[in-house]
Amino acid sequence: MNKVLLNSLGVAGLITLLVLAYVGFALLNLEKKRAENEARYQCAVSSKYEIRDGDANVSFPVKEVYKECLREKEID
């Protein structure tokens, strides 16, 4: 009986370890994507150009400045 319990605990421990490794890997990828999106946002805001179009203001990044900023932050 002790051997069955020990084997069950070993399998449960291994499954728990695999789940934790998967969650850790997923969180690392999520953090990497968040950092990349933040860098893109900062580049877009820093190179913002606004024009008035009727009743609305239209803003967009200046393409050359935006691309240079992304290149400096090593984002393709």
How does this model look, in words?
The chain has 76 residues and is an alpha+beta fold. The protein has helices at residues 2-46, 63-72; strands at 48-53, 56-61. Strand 1 and strand 2 form a beta hairpin.
What characteristics describe this protein?
single chain; 76 residues; alpha+beta; two-stranded antiparallel ribbon; 2 helices; 2 strands; 72% helix; rod-shaped
Question: What is this structure, in a nutshell?
Answer:
With 76 residues, the protein is of the alpha+beta class. The chain is 72% helix and 16% strand.
Tell me how many strands there are: 2
Biggest sheet: strands, sense, closure? 2 strands, antiparallel
Tally of DSSP helical segments = 2
- Extract low-pLDDT stretches: none
How much beta, percentage-wise? 15-25%
**Kindly, what is the distance between the CA atoms of the first and last residues, rounded to a whole number of angstroms?**
58 Å
Percent of residues in helices comes to: over 70%
What's the Cα radius of gyration?
24 Å
What is the average of the pLDDT values? 90
Secondary-structure-derived class: alpha+beta
Order of helices and strands: HEEH
Strand sequence of the main sheet, in spatial order?
1-2
Global shape: rod-shaped
What is the topology?
Elements: H1 2-46, E1 48-53, E2 56-61, H2 63-72
Helix pairs in contact: 1-2
